[in-house]
Amino acid sequence: MKRPHKHRPWRVLAAALTTGLALSACGGGGGAGGTAASGGDKTLRVWFPGNLSNEVTWVNGTLVPAFEKQHPGVDVQVEFVDWANLSTRLSTAFAGNTAPDVFGHGNAAAAGFADAGRIQPLDEQVAALPEADRTDLTFLNDGKVGGKQYIMPLRGFGYLVAYRKDLVKEAGLDFATPPATWEDLRAAAGKLAQREGGKVTRSGLLMPADNTISMSQAFGTLLFQAGGKFLAGDGKTVTWNAPEGVAALEHLTGLYQGSDAVSSGLGEKTASTGAQHPLATGRAAMALVDDATLKTIHEQSPELAEKIGVLSPVKKAEAVSFGGAGNGMFISAKTKLKKEAWDFISFMLKPENVKAYSLTVGGIPARTSVAKDPELTKVSYLAPFMEAAPQFRGNPNVATWTQLRDALGKEIEKALRGTTPPRKALDDAAAAAEELLKG
Amino acid sequence: MVLPATIILFVVVAIPIGYGFYLSLTSYNPVETTGPRFHGLAGYAEVLTSAEFWRALGVTGAYAVGTLILTVPAALGLALLVNGKFPGVGLFRGMMYLPRVVSLVAVSMIWLWLYSREGFFNYALDLVGLDPVEFLTDESTALPSLIVMRAWKALGGSMIIFLAGLQTIPQELIQSAAVDGAGRLRTFRHVTLPLLMPITTYVVVVDLIYLAQSFSEIYILTSGGPLGSTTVVNMLVYKQAFENFQLGEASAMAFVLFCMIFALAYANVRLLGRSKK
């Protein structure tokens, strides 16, 4: 017998404390969303994902004061929530009715929140935007779930192969004609890799393999390049184990395994590691990196900036890569400040703020017009990603995507570590995913 | 007089445990608006038949026992060393105790760097001409690396407890053994060690209870990987609760672990009682 219950604050308190029986660290919620502060101001609570100091400074010092000046009577309270704790914080906040009015999250979370009725559709607000604005917002369509707009992407991201020009030259390669296919890139990686006693000491081509998420994104890049998809168009049928997927995973595992392996460092954290990234330390000659990681390398190892080049996506069937809409803004379903919440989001998406956001945080700007801004196009770590924006493909917007991705990521790790053959790994992941898709 | 304490205990202990138990009997996704749905013992059945849970329990056991095997003899040895009076003994004791007072999160962050490819241990290996080791990213070395870190953290605290135990041993007994012709080793084996049994039991069982609840250091250093080789039960509870949003099943797991820890605590009390007799 199933008995649905309404949430009450004491339940949430009790649940949180009970979880504390086993866990030593848990996040907590704040006050209720959309409240009236002293002096009659409306308090708009906004959660930003991440805690980059540049972003904190810009949001608190420039963005929020400018918004409050334009919207007298609205007091914006911003909280920066570490990415690692964002889902935890949001889930407890939803359960306890303490979710913020506006919050940021990755695009991958949109379908799950929409399915659970935790976020508002934004179609009416988007329809009210001038036509020129709608067409200018590069990643608008990526923010749709089941045809409805739920997330307003603030920036885009993508993966491209970055390489060390000095190491390429040293290996006798000339990227004036850059690698264009898997075979070209693999051959270049073979020449760039260094080995000692059968071990790869310098990766010819390093793929992101920090954890199961980045492993699934590396696989996604190759899957799309092979002409495959994660799921069929209906969003209910797994297709990652189709021949294109098998070819992609075999290609990926081949980089790490065998006597001609060209990659090492499975499980090593490389995302946003700056000066510690193997490309910066010289332990990798080429690496598939996202824009944020390349930005940290440029910032922390400025002496290498001139030595790093970026390749356009290579292909097996199609020259594309994993990417698309990055983080964006949602409006909580239960906010009492729907208008103010939308005002804040649309303020963030003004061209001048989109530009400032990209310069401050990095990432592909959310507006096509801004991507042509000379100040941005001269940023060497950003320009190649802005150029490649139309070639980025993202994950499917289905409610259980994060769980599907975890199921896939676990099996990809097994294949990469050689404990399961690629085809079996993909079939096992598909079997687990189909159970999840059945609900 | 006891009413305020009773109320506080009821509010912060009994209600959460009671509600947690109720949650363990439900299917509950906090992101959904439907709230908990009662499904009896199905969650427990799912947990107890889950290979992932038993594997995590095995990892938890290996982690706890491995840490104790390193910590207890080393802590006892250090306690014997610092039990004497020599210049700087106070400073030495203080330094050994330092890791205990530093937050486990901070310690984990430091060890994350020590174990990294560019970290101190690989630098030291390179200096002596050895290949670098993937301490935290290789399935065969990740758990032992965690054990070494946790043993280092626990060493000072256990040493101080052993030291306190050593200082309660009547000197007359040691002197009598010496008069009877027992050497240092025999005195240690037949006098010191038996008299330290209650303390040893206490250290082992209390540390086991703490170690069975480990989470933060594993979350920071390996997040349960590679290939689940460091996924302890609490890591699995966290993943189920806050990554898969299965709060009911996570609560059931937490309660199974709670029962096991309770059994350990009970065994501690019984063993201590027996030692006193």
Automatic annotation (TrEMBL), chain A:
Signal peptide boundaries: 1-24
InterPro entries (alphabetical): Bact_solute-bd_prot1 (IPR050490), SBP (IPR006059)
Pfam family, one: SBP_bac_1
SUPFAM superfamilies: Periplasmic binding protein-like II
CDD domains: PBP2_UgpB
Residue spans crossing the bilayer: none
PANTHER family: ARABINOSE-BINDING PROTEIN-RELATED, DIACETYLCHITOBIOSE BINDING PROTEIN DASA
Protein's name according to its UniProt entry: ABC transporter substrate-binding protein
The species this protein was found in: Sinosporangium siamense
Organism phylogeny: Bacteria, Bacillati, Actinomycetota, Actinomycetes, Streptosporangiales
Automatic annotation (TrEMBL), chain B:
Bilayer topology annotation: Multi-pass membrane protein
Main localization, broad class: membrane
Regions crossing the membrane: 7-25, 62-82, 94-114, 191-212, 250-269
Example GO biological process: transmembrane transport
One GO CC term on file: plasma membrane
Keywords from the UniProt entry: Cell membrane, Membrane, Transmembrane, Transmembrane helix, Transport
Record bears the keyword Transport: yes
Top-level taxon in the UniProt lineage: Bacteria
Locations listed in the record: Cell membrane
Parts forming coiled coils: none
Keyword Transcription: no
Domain ABC transmembrane type-1 per the UniProt entry, residue ranges: 57-266
InterPro entries: ABC_transporter_permease, MetI-like, MetI-like_sf
Family the UniProt entry places it in: Belongs to the binding-protein-dependent transport system permease family.
PANTHER family the UniProt entry points to: ABC TRANSPORTER PERMEASE PROTEIN, INNER MEMBRANE ABC TRANSPORTER PERMEASE PROTEIN YCJO
Name of the protein in question: Sugar ABC transporter permease
Species assigned in the record: Sinosporangium siamense
